[in-house]
Amino acid sequence: MKIFKKTLVILFYALLLFVVLLFLWKPYLIRVLRYRTPNAETYKIFPQEISHKSDSAFHFISAVKQRNDLDTLHVLDGDNHSIPLKTYLKNGQVNVFIVIRNDSILYERYDKGYSDSTLISIFSGAKSMISIAIGEALADRSIKSLNDKVTQYIPELKSNPAFEQVTLKNLLDMKSGLEFQDALGGIVKAFFSDEAKYYYTDDMKAQLMKVKLVNKPGTVWVYKSIDPILLGWVLKKATGKSVAQYFEANVWKKIGTQYNATWGLDQINGLTNTASRFQVTAIDFAKIGRLYLNKGRFNGKQVIPEDWVDQSVNIGAEKPASAKGWQKSAHHYLWWIPQEGDKGDYAAEGMLGQRLYVDPKTNTIIVQFAGHGAGNYPYRKISRYLSALPFSYPKG
To answer: CA-to-CA distance for 164 and 180, rounded, in angstroms?
Structure first.
């Protein structure tokens, strides 16, 4: 019995030593353990940079009569159950849901103290924002070409042969070939995943310097955070401004925003997490949708090149690398673009149900902020219903 107890004590201290050494080796794991899956408020633990609001705000028109009939419109949830939109919003813990058509707010629902001016993280919706900034940097010639190698802008990466052939377009297409472990597959895998590492680390540069190449650049699409993070680093190097400063001067101040937006850094004066830490209010997020609806123009002035908007939200003859949901959304230039049925709509999408949906056919913008989301893709049905256009979900 004494030997058994002594063995247990030894095992306990050995385990304790292992845990201590593990956290010393990978200190970001302390944050992973403490915060686990981030929520819309987790961004506050990181340093922030501000993209300041416009000097003069644009205001959507509040409809005299709200389209409350949307409450009873049946949509499919993540289990393909047909339920009223009101139930869909409740089941998905949707805190903000705004539907705008022809610049008029037709329907809005709020919960848990949220409003259209609540600042929250849109997680992977940030990827679409860095895509916008890259398009503008190409237009002002800060970036010469998407075919440029990433090492032309970040010479520090030349010490790692994994980056030798990686182009900016590879990053924009998420076809860098760089190794990345997602968080799917259980608690242990999620704990040690690259998804958790790049969200919680306070030194993204150090992590990126060690990454390996597992596929030839340009050949294999894998959804991952490091490609848009690298684009943020490229933008900073190419323009001499932080992502927040560049986005403010070239986008945010030019589209009538009412509130400041923020970008999360890994450390003070460090790299911007352009994969998952952009914070915005719902009403201003809608203005990004309006900018794209208007082909990059605001008040008659071209803010983003029209051809960049067209390139970003149209796949053209390119073979889709992904097909998410019944609408078979393809990931292209860091936007999600449905390929099934009557095409033309697109979305910026983030974890836990953060959405910016844009439908040029009906001039509709939908913003959703959620606690976990109810799944599926109800937005096209909503936009077509409001425009009295036919819609049916695909069979099967």
So the answer is: 18
CA distances in angstroms from 248 to 40, 52, 231, 260, listed in the order given:
22, 6, 17, 9
Tokens encoding 42: 């987790």
- Burial of residue 203 (CB within 10 Å: 0-12, 13-18, 19+) is middle
CA 62 to chain centre: 28
Dihedral sign (CA 372, 375, 379, 384): negative
Phi, psi angles (nearest 5°) of residue 60: -65, 155
Burial class (CB in 10 A: 0-12, 13-18, 19+), 148: middle
**Quick count: other Cβ atoms within 10 Å of Cβ 208?**
22
Does residue 20 have a pLDDT over 50?
no
Cβ atoms 356, 125 nearer than 8 A:
yes
Tell me if 249 sits within 8 A of 198, measured CB to CB: no
Tokens read off for 286: 């809608």
pTM of the shown model: 0.93
